[in-house]
Amino acid sequence: MDDPHLNRDVLVALQEVMEDEYPMLLDTFLADSEERLSLLRQQKDAGQLMETAHSFKGSSSNMGAVRLADLCHELEHRAKEYPPSDLQKLIREIDLEFAVVRPLYEAERERSLFEKATVRRF
Amino acid sequence: MTAVQTPFESLTVLIAEDSAADRLLLSTIVRRQGHEVLTAANGAEAVELFRQQRPQLVLMDAMMPVMDGFEAAQQIKALAGETLVPIIFLTSLTESEGLARCLEAGGDDFLAKPYNQVILAAKIKAMDRLRRLQATVLQQRDQIARHHNYLLNEQRVAKAVFDKVAHSGCLNAPNIRYLQSPYALFNGDLLLAAFTPAGDMHVLLGDFTGHGLPAAVGAMPLAEVFYGMTAKGYGLSETLREMNAKLKRILPIDMFCCATLLCLSFQRRSVEVWNGGMPDGYLHNIASDERTPLTARHLPLGVLSPETFDDRTEVFPMAVGDRVFLLSDGVIDTCDADEQLFGVERLHQVFAANRQPEELFEEIEQALRDFRGEARDDVSMVEVSLLDATQMRPPTLVYSDSGQSCPLDWSVSFEFRAASLKRFNPLPYLLQLLLEVHGLRAQSGALYSVLAELYSNALEHGVLGLDSSLKRDASGFARYYQERNARLDALHSGYVRVHLEVVPTGEGGCLSIRVEDSGKGFDIARVMERPAENVRLSGRGVNLVQQLGRNASWSDNGRSARVEFFWDALA
């Protein structure tokens, strides 16, 4: 796997399963993720951090966002041991990683829509 | 090996997952596998959806807002009750503690993120198999329970009907003690007792092959024959032959009835025994404290054809207080933990240790418990003791006719010749004829006893020429009856004649009975001289006839006996 951020095989499989709903799945994931990031930034309490990181980890892994999933996994574990204030650096890292993958998913979305249009045309 | 193919059946699958993307992905996968999908975003929604739509399978995220997956799983399992609703936890939990919590909450399996379609399809299929298996088990359990209740009800009805038949006898007579489980009938055990018109007592302990209703069905016809024929005055031989023929006719080939039949005669102080396939019974002589085994000499009832059936009985003398003890094979066939049989030896040890005859049953039961470690419910025992004839009061018979057509002035003569004497017992017919006369009914016991005595004297001492002095001791008693059977088998000439005459006298009437035989006769004067006390086992007949009838007399060198019965105006 060349791309350390995104597992392209996972995307191929997802497109196969979702067919026409593939762009919607990508949209949903991006919207979900925005929501979770804002929750993480609030750093309310350890419990909430842990749960959010856990869910984020799950859906990231389903979507092939490999590094994002790893970072969330780390946060989930650290949140058990350290106060939220100590985790700011890690949360920022997650934020940055999402900033990296977000355009990749948006590009994938455009590609799939274009592909569909092309297929239809011929 | 080929796996059992269940036809694909679309399931309704509930997906509870708070992450919208995961929910969308998972529901698309499951739908594409051909199932209906319901979705919930938290545990509370999942429980509510389950309550409304009863999906057959649940995919449940562990961590969810509002209500988490653990709590939701518990509530859904509780709602599902006995029905198996498999719950597969969706989790990226890796710690064993978290996985254990899923199982404790009622989870049946896990599915890790990222989802793998192939594994998910396989898990849904496996869980569906489990679900169907559980449904089948529940269905069969309910079916078994229904059948069981049905069977119990049938048994209750059968037992109620049978108790009516069985208890028409005299098991509550003062000389009978018995022990039987309340459902012995369904172990195939059968105990019957009834008085003959002469005041003798017939007792049957039977054991049908098998268990349950099949073992009980033969009991009804057997009891009918037993009571019907005993009440009409038939002897053991005729009753046995009829029971055997009936069972042979109605029972399937592998079913039969082991049985011991007794005829206890309080007047003659003897017991007549036929044992077909039962364990040894015992005749307990109290004076000598000896027990004579009453061994099976025949095949069970319902095995042989009427032509080959052997109705031969043995007769033993008894003294007042002597007891006959019969038992079912449940006693000696009791096994201990090592498959060892209780056996006859141990039974004899219990006999030997017994001090109070009244406690014998309890001692045997205790010995069985000690031996086996627990009590059995298929043990039947009965003990019949010989009381003095005056202590036994057979119940008075009830007649249903009004008496308006009662015959009062008639006579009739019979001659029974060799071929009939061998196999026909005319006494029940003669008695039935006489009991048409209402005035005689009150004396039916005495009447039957006298008729029976005169007839057997004419047959045994007259026609067969047997010497009654043979019966002086116990071994001679047995020899006497062996000889009787042998001579009867060989008989080709001779007769017994019975003359009955009824005449009205004022408001009442008189019956005279005359019995003649073709034998050599006997010295009447010498028999009359013998004091009654000396004739313990022989010569009882003459005394009996003199005591029970009026104006008894013998003529033609003892070949002709005459006796009369009188009655007054009926109340």
Topology:
The complex is a heterodimer of chains A (122) and B (571).
Chain A (H helix, E strand, L loop, with lengths): L7 H11 L3 H21 L3 H17 L3 H16 L6 H34 L1
Helix pairs in contact in A: 2-3, 2-5, 3-4, 4-5
Chain B lengths: L11 E5 L3 H13 L3 E5 L2 H11 L3 E5 L7 H12 L6 E5 L4 H9 L4 E4 L4 H50 L9 E4 L9 E7 L5 E8 L3 H6 L1 H14 L3 H15 L6 E9 L4 E7 L4 E5 L4 E5 L19 E4 L5 E5 L1 H4 L10 H11 L6 H13 L8 E5 L24 E8 H6 L3 H8 L3 H4 L2 H20 L10 H17 L4 E11 L2 E10 L6 H6 L10 H9 L1 E6 L4 E8 L4
Parallel strand pairs in B: 1-2, 1-3, 3-4, 4-5
Antiparallel strand pairs in B: 6-15, 7-8, 8-9, 9-10, 10-13, 11-12, 11-14, 14-15, 16-17, 17-18, 18-20, 19-20
Helix pairs in contact in B: 2-3, 7-8, 10-11, 15-18
Describe it for me?
The complex is a heterodimer of chains A (122) and B (571). Chain A has helices at residues 8-18, 22-42, 46-62, 66-81, 88-121. Chain A is an all-alpha fold and 122 residues long. The radius of gyration of chain A is 16 Å and the shape is elongated. With 571 residues, chain B is an alpha+beta fold. Chain B folds into three domains: 12-138, Rossmann fold (3-Layer(aba) Sandwich), CATH 3.40.50.2300; 167-328 and 378-391, PPM-type phosphatase domain (Phosphatase 2c, domain 1, 4-Layer Sandwich); 410-567, Heat Shock Protein 90. Chain B is built from 18 helices and 20 strands. Chain B is elongated, with a radius of gyration of 38 Å. Chain B starts with 11 loop residues before the first strand and ends with a strand. The A-B interface holds A 10, 13-14, 17-18, 21, 24-25, 28-29, 31-32, 51, 54-55, 57-59, 61-64 and B 18-22, 24-25, 28-29, 32, 61, 63, 65, 90-92, 113-115, 117.
